[in-house]
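Handout for the seminar on molecular recognition.
Each group receives one record of this type.
Step one: identify the two inputs.
Step two: read the structure output and locate the region that could contact DQA.
Step three: write two sentences on what you found, then compare them with the reference statements printed after the record.
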Amino acid sequence: MKILVINGPNLNMLGIREPEHYGKTTYRDLCTLIEGHAAAVGVTVELYQSNHEGDLVDKIQDAYGNTDGIVINPGAYTHTSIALLDALKAVSIPAVEVHISEVDKREEFRQVSYVRLACFATITGHGVNGYTEAIDLLRERHEG
Ligand code: DQA
């Protein structure tokens, strides 16, 4: 099974940005955590981060036909991007939305998610563990 983990804008700043919301784990530490979990459960994982909406759309499109699941934290594009929603719908790859913080309890504008409409599950407020939980959900679904 191959899973693509996509992180959107500013998630490369993890560990530096607003630790009260996002904790102190760096993006590099997050990648190590995800890779370690994927290896432990026998999943091939690819990690991708971009600050650019079109690059994120390209990456989702490139996954068509070669990826069994997508974990996506679109960062602020969660709340604005119909293009990311459409890309996920276009490829029809099972997807899980992850947010490190509890977006549904923050500002009103963070309580809107377009990508959620193309994801079969959403994990919010579990910190970086949300990513490994999302991988487990995709595995369960894949194995039926
Ligand atoms: C985030 C929440 C978003 O509102 C924010 O713009 C982010 C990170 C999260 O992981 O909690 O960049 O997606």
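Reference statements: The two ends are 13 Å apart (CA to CA). Residues 2-143 form a domain with the Rossmann fold fold (CATH 3.40.50.9100).
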